[in-house]
Amino acid sequence: DYSMATMAQELFSALQATGITRFALVGHALGALIGLQLALDRPEAVSALVLVNGWLTLSPHTRRCFLVRERLLHAGGAQAWVEAQPLFLYPAEWMAARLPRLEAEDALAISHFQGKENLLKRLQALKQADFSRRAAAIACPTLIVSAADDLLVPASCSRVLQTAIPGSQHVEMPWGGHACNVTDADTFNTILRDGLAAMLPVAREIR
C-alpha cells in the first residue's frame, strides 16, 4: 500500500520506535505530502511543518512530467530514468558546471535502483494525493518553501498551498530548481533555520 496515509503511518511508527513522539517535519516533494498527511492524521505529534516544493493537488504540468518519466522508464529502463532525473531537478547552468558529479550520482543511482514496480507505485501515490479539502484543518505552524525556476513543480503550487493552510508562511527562492536545497544550500538553510526559529522559539529562562 503506497497511499500517503500508509507512508505517513510508517514514518510515525519509525519515529515512535526511537522514542520520538513530537517533532518538526521538513519534507521535500513527496516528503512534503507525507508531512501534510501526518499533520492531519497525528496533529498532536507534529509541532511544525516545512514543506518544500509541495502541492495540494498535482498540477497538469507536473502530471505531464510524470507521464514523460514513466514512458522513459518503460522504454529505457533504469538507466534512462536515472539519466533524465537531473533535468527535472537542477538548473541547466548548475548541471553544466558539475558534469563529473552528475555522472557519479548517475552511476550510484543505477547501482541502487529501487525497482520499476516500486517506483511506479510511488508515482501513482503522488498523482492520487489530494489535500485540497483538508488543508484548512492543519493547525501547526507551517513554512512553505519553493523555487521560482522549479521545472517539475511550478512555484504557483506553493502559493496555492500557502493560501489553503491557515497562518502558513511562504518563501520563494529566486533560483535553484526543484532541488533548491542542493543547488543553493546556503540560501535554503538560512530560510530553514530562520523559519524553524520563528515557529519553534526556544524557551528562555525567566529570572
Tag the structure with descriptive keywords.
Rossmann fold; 2 domains; four-stranded parallel sheet; 4 strands; globular; disordered C terminus; hydrolase
Count of spatially separate domains: 2
CATH class of the largest domain: Alpha Beta
Q: Shape, please?
A: globular
Low-confidence stretches: 203-207
Residue fraction in strands: 5-15%
Q: What's the Cα radius of gyration?
A: 18 Å
Give the neighbour order of strands across the main sheet: 1-2-3-4
Helix content: 55-70%
Terminal residue distance: 53 Å
Structural class of the secondary elements? alpha/beta
Largest sheet, if any? 4 strands, parallel
Protein name: Pyrimidine utilization protein D
Pfam families: Abhydrolase_1 (PF00561)
Keywords: Hydrolase
GO molecular function, one term: hydrolase activity, acting on carbon-nitrogen (but not peptide) bonds, in linear amides
Summarize the structure.
56% of the residues lie in helices and 12% in strands. With 207 residues, the protein is of the alpha/beta class. It has 2 domains: 4-59 and 130-135 and 142-199, 3-Layer(aba) Sandwich (Rossmann fold); 61-123.
Describe this structure in words.
The protein is α/β, with parallel strands linked by helices. The chain folds into two domains: 4-59 and 130-135 and 142-199, Alpha/Beta hydrolase fold, catalytic domain (Rossmann fold); 61-123. The protein contains nine helices and four strands, in the order αβαβααααβαβαα. It has helices at residues 4-17, 30-41, 60-89, 92-96, 99-111, 116-128, 155-164, 180-183, 185-199, and strands at 23-28, 46-52, 142-147, 169-173.
